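Example 3.2
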Amino acid sequence: MSQDKSYQISGHRVPVESPAPGLYPVATPIGNLRDITLRALDILAGADLVLCEDTRHSARLFDAYGIKTPRTALHEHNERARIDSILDQIRDGKAIALISDAGTPLLSDPGFPLVRAAREAGIDIFPVPGPSALLAALTGAGLPTDAFAFFGFLPPKTGQRTNALAPLIGRPETLVFYESPRRLGATLSDMAQTFGPDRQAVVALELTKRFERFEAGNLSDLAEAFAGDTKGEAVILVAGSDGTAPQAGGDWEAALTEAMDQMPLRAAVDQVSVQFGLKRKQVYDAALALKAST
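Structure, written as tokens:
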């Protein structure tokens, strides 16, 4: 039986042509199914195969638009093992689409090893742009968008997280992170400790969905506001540094002791010296003394 290369909108079937052979990373809705683009529907319905992060999750989108294209799972646990087979199929003349559970593939989602391998193999790659939580959050947050840096998900443990945040203290551009609802409060608390409690930030939740909301304020207030349970994936946007050292208040030596409990000595020294505007040698000497006394 031949594949039904069409999709459905408002009860009308729309036939599509087969795309040229190649790999098609396709952006899909992050919540609202009506955010799908017509080109994305053309590719998903016309492709020979769609690689999905989770075929059960993608079923909702495919059912909504009556897309019958075969699907198979491609995720972080099997991606590298499947690359050669996928590239061989494209060489044989197939058009293969790649989607994540939501938004644009490769942005904190699977797909990078496959795209890199396809590029290195000289295989055509046709990105199909569209929805992205990163861009949706930036356009609604009210923080500068002329320069920004995206860091995806931070490490899950506090020590690793603060270690990752410390080098970003002086960055002047807007900083953007993804975070799960169960770690949102802890991450905001670590950010307040690292960047200073008064650094301005915005939390974007449930983007494009019914309960979409943006919460703005300083990191200290946001950490308190989201200390409890939160629903929905979050995007955290932190204002860039204004060039002044963040002041967390309190005793810098106590902060150093706490930091050394959570991260390597050099990282703790870097964080505290920047956070309190101190000379690194002064903090480093204190850290060596603390280490010797324990």
